[in-house]
């Protein structure tokens, strides 16, 4: 029997033999530096003006800037396959020029008043979506629900842009003056006697809120869990892209919209103020202007599954490639692989890093440090470092060298920190500022459906963005509260009070006034149902009426008599 041949190499080994590793330009330069520096000063000091050459040639940079999307994906794959050589010096970070320009892409609207900036974002197209879809849904409810003649929906009248503007103005006002229940805004006691009922009745407001819709409920349009808010979400993102070009420094983080009801994609984030709710991924400028937003709907989401965090970053940044933007993110998103992908798109990134991420150098992630100490490594135009203050912080950057800089702490003492940490703390606060300001005046109610709450939240974000644009490009300066009040006054114009009818010239003695009903049998006076209480769904009898009105309606002395005649 012939002897069996000697087993050959395994499949992975055969692949390695067929595809020998080719060192990159960065790696060759690093090896040459290490081999030639044994008898010389090994490292430049932190104040050196030395600047490492770009890890990518000029020809390749030109090719990258004009590459198609498929070419960019190929470059990403190549970057992921290359193994990095990590060195302490010299820093080999790429120099990318910022070619964007922070500007308003349209002329300053109108007279530059707060309402002009809000209507710059909430334009005619926006109101057309709300008015058209709300009317369509109201007709659908009328046709498909069996409702009594006295129900609110049976009295539905089509809404127009003017009335929708007033509805939104009143909704924004409710965020300024918050009451426990929605119906409290129409109460008439001496503590809660608000003028809202002069502009819109309670029943009309509630029926508009019930029918508020952003898309037609057609089976053909039900694509994904967000189909009910997709038109409004797309409108917001497209409008911000067309109206405003941001400055160099951007950040990405999550924001939670409180929701404790049943919802398939409700999320939990323990370090947020609202731990349970609907998770938004936001791309913001360093001052808090929201440039792009996406809602996470679970692992079945287009951005879900493997590589979810990187997919979110690439999706939010898709309109800002190849301009030299600086992106700041926390450790949920950052990785060496993503940093190299962003560099291929001429975009910097800086932020904290998780120790378990792939390609993170172990001599940095596992280093034991004393307070104030730091360690770092450079590789492939990426810097990974660790610094210990009260606790160890692992970070990554493709823009800032790991120099130590002096910073003033909140206690007034000087502290030495790595430059990447300083820049991260400086530019990562945009989303927190946006969350903070919007939390002061929430207009949405917990009793409404989730998609209406999301829709009102998007409108609130448009209001916040318009305020930030007003602060940047117009005067006088004002607080967010003053800005909201100005917008509300413009959306809900003053209604001139009706002139009270004076005495008739034909009958000078004629005048409306309460009169006691005549006595019935015995000593008991006759009583009638109060007409005004009955209109509000309250059963109450009274011994007073108005003899000047037809049918002699029964009316309580206070406040029904006055309210009834004011609403004639």
Automatic annotation (TrEMBL):
Domain PiggyBac transposable element-derived protein: 114-467
PANTHER family documented for this protein: PIGGYBAC TRANSPOSABLE ELEMENT-DERIVED PROTEIN 4
Name of the protein in its database record: PiggyBac transposable element-derived protein 4
Family annotation (InterPro entries): PGBD, PGBD4_Znf_C
Region named Disordered: 34-69, 497-522
Residues of the PiggyBac transposable element-derived protein 4 C-terminal zinc-finger domain: 525-565
One Pfam family this sequence matches: DDE_Tnp_1_7
């Amino acid at each position: 029997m012939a002897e069996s041949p000697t087993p050959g190499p395994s499949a992975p080994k055969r692949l390695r033999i067929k595809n020998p590793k080719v060192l990159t330009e960065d790696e060759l330069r690093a090896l040459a530096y290490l081999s030639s520096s044994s008898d010389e000063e090994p490292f430049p000091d932190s104040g050196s003006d030395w600047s490492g050459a770009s890890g990518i040639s000029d020809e390749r940079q030109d090719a990258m800037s004009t590459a198609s999307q498929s070419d960019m994906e190929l470059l990403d794959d190549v970057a992921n396959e290359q193994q990095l050589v990590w060195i302490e010096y010299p820093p080999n970070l790429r120099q990318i020029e910022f070619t964007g320009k922070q500007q308003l892409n349209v002329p300053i609207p109108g007279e530059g008043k707060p309402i002009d900036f809000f209507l710059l974002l909430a334009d005619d197209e926006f109101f057309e979506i709300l008015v058209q879809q709300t009317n369509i849904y109201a007709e659908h409810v009328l046709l498909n629900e069996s409702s009594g003649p006295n129900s609110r929906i049976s009295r539905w009248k089509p809404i127009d842009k003017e009335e929708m503007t007033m509805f939104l103005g009143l909704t924004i006002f409710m965020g300024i003056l918050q009451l426990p229940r929605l119906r409290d805004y129409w109460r008439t006691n001496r503590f809660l006697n608000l003028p809202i009922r002069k502009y819109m009745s309670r029943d009309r407001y509630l029926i508009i809120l019930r029918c508020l819709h952003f898309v037609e409920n057609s089976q053909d349009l039900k694509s994904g869990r967000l189909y009910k808010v997709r038109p409004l979400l797309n409108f917001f993102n497209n409008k911000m892209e067309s109206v405003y070009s941001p400055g160099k420094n951007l950040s990405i983080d999550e924001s939670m919209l409180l929701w404790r009801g049943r919802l398939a994609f409700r999320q939990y984030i323990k370090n947020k103020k609202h731990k349970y709710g609907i998770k938004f991924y936001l791309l913001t400028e360093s001052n808090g202007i929201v440039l792009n937003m996406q809602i996470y709907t679970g692992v079945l989401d287009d951005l879900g599954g493997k590589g979810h965090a990187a997919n979110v970053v690439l999706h939010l940044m898709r309109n800002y490639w190849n301009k030299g933007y600086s992106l700041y993110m926390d450790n949920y998103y950052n990785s060496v692989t993503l940093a190299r992908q962003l560099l291929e798109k001429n975009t910097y990134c800086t932020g904290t890093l998780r120790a378990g991420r792939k390609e993170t150098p172990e001599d940095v992630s596992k280093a034991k440090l004393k307070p104030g100490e730091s360690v770092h490594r450079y590789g492939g135009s990426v810097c990974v470092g660790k610094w210990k203050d009260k606790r160890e912080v692992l970070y990554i950057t493709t823009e800032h060298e790991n120099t130590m800089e002096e910073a003033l702490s909140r206690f007034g003492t000087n502290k030495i920190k790595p430059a990447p940490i300083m820049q991260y703390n400086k530019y990562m606060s945009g989303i927190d500022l946006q969350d903070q300001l919007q939390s002061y005046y929430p207009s949405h109610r917990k009793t409404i459906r989730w998609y209406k709450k999301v829709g009102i939240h998007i409108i609130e974000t448009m209001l916040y963005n318009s305020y930030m644009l007003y602060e940047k490009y117009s005067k006088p300066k004002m607080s967010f509260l003053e800005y909201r009040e100005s917008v509300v006054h413009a959306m809900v114009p003053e209604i001139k009070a009706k002139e009270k009818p004076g005495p008739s010239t034909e009958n000078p003695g004629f005048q409306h006034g309460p009169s006691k009903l005549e006595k019935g049998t015995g000593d008991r006076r006759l009583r009638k149902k109060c007409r005004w209480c009955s209109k509000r769904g309250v059963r109450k009898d009274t011994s007073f009426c108005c003899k000047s009105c037809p049918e002699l309606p029964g009316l309580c002395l206070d406040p029904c008599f006055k309210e009834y005649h004011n609403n004639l």
